[in-house]
TrEMBL record:
Keywords recorded for this protein, A-Z: Coiled coil
Recorded superkingdom: Eukaryota
Protein's organism: Aureococcus anophagefferens
Protein name per Swiss-Prot or TrEMBL: PH domain-containing protein
Coiled coil: 205-239
């Protein structure tokens, strides 16, 4: 491993993998010292580029041409082993049969399998491909001076125009077109259209307005459904109270037959159960143990209708529910989301860092079908505060629930014994 310095004017982009198609992790500013562990060549379009794996201060892959090794002379050209890779710039020289090509610079498109003066390279010059012997070429530089990501932006713009072409044409037909004229006939013509940027902005604003109206409609439907469910639950509760009146009467009659000591034991168990319920109600009404902003990886939908996983910031609260125990709660799309933490393990993600984030942690439980829930904080202090608070809440709830569970078991045994005694008394002549 060696130390390098970022020399690109705009810094360099770090990606999750060595291929340029992998997703972006972050950007590193010019002048930053980085530690490189691996260097490899990958194919990018019609040429090869050298990519390097950076392990410090963050992990990711970057273009080697945007870095300079600290023990290299900045003014000296980088040494490149033969055969020269695709993308290298060379100069034609010693071509007696083609004096018009003498001294011209070209770009290597295909390199021979081995080095040697008689081996032939395929080079691009003025829109032509030429096969030239190595002896007639002089190496100039390995990487072009233009932006290495320029072709990515071009491909993304072409893909966007192809995606929007049909959808935006249907919308454009229903709007006023007097100021902008007829709609282009192809995605390529759409990109060259003088009004493309203005019409695209109006189209996206129309989509946002439609999505807002749809969200309001869904919220109104959800509210109506909640009112209907509340009415049904109230009716079911009333029916349950009426149905429980008869068993309660029979149970009261059976208690009258119990001895005074048995009545006292039964009353004690009821008081203990009430105390446990009161304690749980106090925990439920208490303020959140911790609240603040965290980033959570969730599924989002773009304006074009595509779904993807992305980090979104929410306001989280660590609360203790009377029934479910410690929970992480946050508001999303007009509803409250919850992750139950009872029996969960919370871990910092410093070593493996599967999220690619610096201050990440996850909450895991065997019941999570989709795997652990991943979060990341804005700083190390905030992450430490959340991890410690979640671990303490899970441990405290487990310790507090143990006596209540034992009390419930004891009361149940006593009730069964008393009911058996009542049945025995009724069977005697």
């Amino acid at each position: 491993m060696s130390w390098y310095t970022v020399t690109g004017r705009k810094g360099c982009q770090l990606r999750a993998g060595s291929l340029l198609s992998s997703h972006k992790v972050c950007e590193v500013e010019c002048g930053t010292r980085v530690r490189v562990e691996t260097v490899k060549r990958v194919v990018a379009g019609d040429r090869e580029v050298e990519r390097c794996e950076i392990v410090l201060p963050v992990k990711g892959w970057a273009s080697l041409r945007l870095l300079r090794r600290e023990d290299e002379d900045p003014a000296a050209p980088a040494a490149v082993e033969e055969p020269w890779p695709a993308g290298a710039k060379v100069r034609l020289e010693g071509l007696a049969g083609a004096p018009d090509l003498e001294g011209k610079s070209a770009v290597v498109r295909e390199a021979p399998a081995a080095a040697g003066g008689d081996e032939r390279y395929v080079v691009a010059l003025g829109g032509r491909l030429l096969r030239v012997r190595r002896a007639r070429l002089a190496f100039l530089e390995h990487a072009p001076e233009d932006d290495v990501y320029a072709y990515e932006a071009e491909a993304e713009a072409a893909a966007e125009a192809a995606t929007l072409f049909a959808k935006m044409r249907r919308w454009y037909a229903s709007t006023s077109t007097a100021a902008t004229g007829p709609y282009p006939a192809s995605p390529a013509a759409l990109r060259a259209w003088a009004h493309y940027g203005d019409v695209k902005g109006r189209y996206f604003r129309a989509l946002e307005a439609a999505e807002a109206a749809d969200a309001e409609r869904r919220a109104a439907d959800a509210e109506a459904e909640a009112r209907r469910a509340a009415a049904e639950a109230e009716a079911a509760a009333a029916a349950a109270v009426d149905g429980a009146a008869v068993p309660v009467g029979r149970h009261a009659a059976a208690l009258e037959k119990l001895a005074p000591a048995a009545k006292k034991s039964r009353r004690t168990s009821i008081m203990m159960a009430k105390a446990v319920a009161d304690a749980e109600a106090e925990r439920d009404d208490a303020a959140p143990a911790l609240e603040g902003e965290l980033f959570y990886k969730t599924k989002v939908k773009s304006l074009l209708g595509k779904e993807k996983m992305a980090w979104k910031k929410f306001h989280f609260a660590l609360v203790v529910d009377a029934d479910a125990g410690p929970c992480l709660e946050w508001a999303a799309r007009g509803s409250t989301m919850r992750v139950v933490l009872e029996g969960c393990a919370v871990c910092r993600d410093d070593a493996a860092a599967p999220t690619g984030k610096v201050y990440a942690f996850h909450v895991a439980h065997e019941s999570f079908a989709a795997g652990p829930k991943y979060f990341h904080a804005a700083s190390l202090v905030i992450r430490t505060r959340w991890v410690d608070a979640i671990a303490d809440a899970v441990a405290d709830f487990a310790a507090a629930a143990a006596p209540a569970k034992q009390t419930a078991k004891t009361a149940r045994r006593a009730s069964l014994a008393l009911e058996a005694a009542v049945v025995h008394d009724e069977d005697e002549p």
